[in-house]
Amino acid sequence: MPSFTSFLSNNLMSLMFCNTSLVGPLARVRTLASTHTLRRRNFHLFTRTNTLRRSFCSHSAAVTVHSTTTFTNGNPEYGRLLPCPSHHGPPRIEHLVVEDGGTVLEYICKVLDLPPLFVADLIHFGAVYYALVCPKPPPTATPEEIEVYKEYTDPSVLSKRVSIKGKTVREAQKTFRITSVDEFVETGTYLRVHVHPKRFPRCYEIDWRSRIISVTESYVVLDKPAGTSVGGTTDNIEESCATFATRALGLTDPLMTTHQIDNCTEGCVVLARTKDYCSVFHGKIREKKVKKLYLALIAAPVPIGVITHYMRPINIAPRLVSEEFTKRWYLCQLEVLECKRVPWPTAEVVHRYSIEDCGWPSQEFAYECKISLLTGRTHQIRAQLAACGAPIVGDAMYMPAASAEILRPGLNPLGTCRKQYASENDKEVAIEDWIACHGKEPRIAIGLQACQISWDDGEHFYEARTPWWRMEIA
């Protein structure tokens, strides 16, 4: 296996490109890179960013962390993952197969050349996973990666491992989150390390106690701030509404999520205090006993009544919807209860709440709609309203596509003005072009609020506070 030194020299320009964009104005960023020969099986598979693709930045052996100019024993002082940094590192996931058993902290520090405190924080964030047997590599795997997989899943090797006796290979390949720095990982164990977890700096700016709407013996209702995750992400369960609300209330047992709303959406969220009530509330959702109302600030008017679309069953954003019934696509329905014209948010409000200007052609008036969500699909309200030519203000993902459709009617191959295509292949190409018209997920907030939630025929009824676009600037 080539040394990291040669690997670094061959990719120096790529590293320079990755790192120059990361330097924050208030903190010096230092790149810690190993310069010794790699002594591990580094089982790189793939990283999903906006699309599935290989990216050098995603797999580089360099890691950027906050540091000061203070040095201890010749090494830069390490600034931890907390508090939240002012920048995000490039996407990076490391896939490893353990060659020498030991504690997970020591092993990751050794093979990835990372500081112990940094790895301890990753484990605390829930950013490290293990499986007793490494998963089968994807079609994009290199010959070396495939060889590593074959070596460690050979029946003669697996038969000697006591830990997987009684388990099928599929069962042994199931991944679990590591929760302790002292957890022992034996030879052959697969590790997935999310070196740069997705961060939520808004968590540290919020007065969480003021966002609590109600506290009962069974649940807590939270007015979720935009720019936060309800229950955390795959690589970050620390910076979540559930965690910070638990601390704000001084609860001993952590609150549990019962349902989700998008990170960029604010409003009512129910957090369970017990596992039993978590199951009870999930049952109420399945039985359609939970009613949710939303306020949406949109760029154009929509008619009162039920809007129906069908959503493509692919779990990747942007979510595509069509008015035309398509077999196996998900039914999406919402009801617009009212729609009134309001002033477009002022520059002061937009700046204060970090609303992105997505280039909508007319920004004199907006429209505030009250919406009853009849089905619950990811991005449903955002995708449906954008498909109607009325995207949500600040929605950096769907508004650019809606703007493009106005300029070039028929650009959306699933829209009302869709073209006829000579073949399915031509249509797929058009769909890929349409996806490219969409932007990125909003950084913080959009004009969408879960304004009311109720269940058991209104016996439990809660409302969020005034939405951001109606807030007065002091």
From TrEMBL:
CDD domains: PseudoU_synth_RluA_like
Record-level Gene Ontology MF annotations: pseudouridine synthase activity; RNA binding
Domain Pseudouridine synthase RsuA/RluA-like positions: 219-387
GO biological process, one term: enzyme-directed rRNA pseudouridine synthesis
Gene3D superfamilies according to UniProt: Pseudouridine synthase
Protein's name in the database: Rna uridine synthase 6, chloroplastic
Species in which this protein is naturally found: Heracleum sosnowskyi
